[in-house]
Write a structure and sequence with these properties.
mainly alpha; 22 helices; globular
């Protein structure tokens, strides 16, 4: 499981790093004004729908269902089931894409009620240009979930690199040609659909196209039952993005606030993606197999390892993002049209959003325990509770504290979802962790706090000059991040959380 986790995490890390490069270029080209706000609202709309389908969301429902059919009816029946899912999902997504294109003005008005008419019209144009991506995302998602179910994680982990790579290539051309933000946004939006086609093409070619046959559209009782479970799971899997969208809706009346929230959330998504996507892709199949054979000890062990891995990254990431919020935002985004005032606003939002990162990691790690048992309703209700908490608090805190208050509301909404899942897990199936996790988790917390405290102390002393050149600033920030990672690893070893020799030996054995 750790080997598969590392494969998915590596691919996700590479995709997220390319995503940072993409967003840094977007910030430099568009800044944080009306054009950027319009573009980012449209991009978030497409991104949320993409997350409803990809990055583990549909995977959570399809993998247990496919494994159940394969184990009870055989491989041919599983392939036929997959063919019906692929055909039906693809058709439904195409129909939904056409409907969204027609209703886009209404959708953008609902997502950004505070926009002026001119900004809203820009967002509508950008969103319509991006929509073709969603038509390609449907079949791509089903293909990736089927590959995950068969333990083929490498292709699904690295396929998303093509999306960011295509956007970066176009933006390099835009930098070389020059031009205004308006035309740059149009070009980037048009590229999104082409990037989706590229990603789907490589999946079809590399998978061999034999995962789902015969291909057909069906709404029989088996398909209706699958979608009755899949749709709640898809919504639950996109919980973090839904919280950001809710925050953006409330922030849309404030100039540049949508952009600040977006860029701050991009930093949150690096650790969340590495663990959340990997745990969702690897833990769901692992737990599903254990649940099918009623191996409770193996299920508890898998769940415990997932929690340890999530906590082991979430806690130091949270403290590191808070301690280095301004330096990292300045390094990544303060170029071109993105000004110093935008760095301040984004960094303030990042500090508060970071407090919700451990909760989002918990949701990503706890949800597979429900998905593996065919329960997608409980994670859905937990997500909806988090959205309700975010809406209520963002309306109040946003009026008093601006974008910082909205960011805090998003973090509290994430904790509402996590606590709801914990409570229902204990009630439904006696959710518990094994003895090893009970020993290691408190020590992980101590190691993270020690690292965070030291980083908070040495950070301001190292970054003494706000006017340092970009190369010097980059070196200093990289040195601080490396120091934080080194200190955290040292504390984990001193506290007996991990033995590096044993870890390396286990990885070698898993690859044998």
């Amino acid at each position: 499981m750790i080997r598969s986790f590392l494969t998915v995490s590596t691919g996700t890390l590479a995709s997220r790093l390319l995503g940072f490069a993409r967003d840094a270029m977007v910030a430099a080209l568009l800044g944080a004004g009306p054009v950027a706000d319009a573009f980012l609202v449209a991009f978030q709309l497409v991104n949320v729908v993409r997350r409803l389908l990809t990055e583990g969301a549909l995977n959570n429902a399809l993998v247990p269902a496919w494994l159940g059919v394969k184990e009870t009816k055989g491989a041919d029946a599983a392939a036929a089931f997959a063919g019906r899912v692929l055909g039906t999902v693809s058709t439904a997504v195409v129909v939904a894409t056409v409907a969204a294109c027609v209703l886009m003005s209404v959708i953008i008005s609902a997502l950004a009620p505070g926009f002026t008419a001119a900004t809203r019209d820009l967002a509508v144009d950008y969103a319509r240009l991006m929509l073709p991506y969603l038509a390609f995302a449907g079949p791509a998602t089903v293909t990736m979930a089927l590959l995950n179910a068969q333990g083929r994680f490498a292709l699904t982990a690295f396929a998303p690199l093509l999306f960011n790579g295509a956007l970066i290539a176009v933006m390099i051309v835009l930098f070389l040609k020059g031009g205004d933000a308006l035309h740059a946004a149009l070009a980037i939006a048009a590229t999104v659909g082409l990037a989706g086609l590229l990603q789907l093409s490589i999946l079809i070619v590399r998978s061999g196209g034999r995962l789902a046959t015969p291909l057909r559209v069906s709404f029989d009782s088996e398909m209706r039952g699958f979608f009755a479970k899949a749709i709640p799971g898809m919504v639950a899997g996109a919980g973090p993005q839904l919280l950001i969208v809710v925050g953006a809706i409330i922030a849309s009346g404030s100039a540049s606030a949508v952009s600040w929230l977006y860029f701050a959330n991009r930093l949150i998504e690096l650790p969340l993606g590495i663990v959340g996507v990997a745990v969702g892709a690897v833990l769901v199949p692992e737990l599903a197999r254990n649940v099918h054979v009623d191996d409770r000890d193996a299920a508890a062990s898998a769940q415990s390892r997932g929690l340890e891995l999530a906590a082991g990254l979430a806690l130091p990431a949270t403290l590191g993002l808070m301690a280095l919020s301004s330096p990292m935002v300045r390094l990544l985004f303060q170029h071109g049209a993105f000004m110093a005032a935008d760095t301040i606003g984004t960094a303030q939002a990042l500090v508060w959003l970071s407090l919700g990162l451990p909760a989002q990691m918990l949701v990503k790690t706890l949800s597979p325990a429900f998905f593996a048992r065919g329960d997608t309703a409980t994670p859905l209700w937990a997500t909806l509770k988090g959205v309700a908490v975010t809406i209520a608090l963002a309306i109040v805190l946003g009026r008093v504290f601006g974008v910082q208050g909205i960011s805090a509301a998003i973090a509290l909404g994430a904790w509402g979802s996590a606590l709801s899942l914990i409570r229902h897990g204990v009630t439904a199936f006696g959710f518990s962790i094994d003895a090893a996790a009970r020993r290691r988790l408190p020590r992980i917390i101590v190691a993270a706090l020690a690292m965070g405290g030291l980083l908070w102390q040495i950070g301001p002393r190292v970054l003494t000059s706000a006017d340092a050149s970009i190369p010097v600033h980059a070196v200093l920030v990289a040195a601080l991040i490396a120091a934080g990672i080194g200190l955290y690893g040292l504390f984990l070893a001193l506290l007996g959380v991990i033995n590096w020799n044993d870890a390396i030996r286990a990885l070698r054995q898993s690859g044998a």
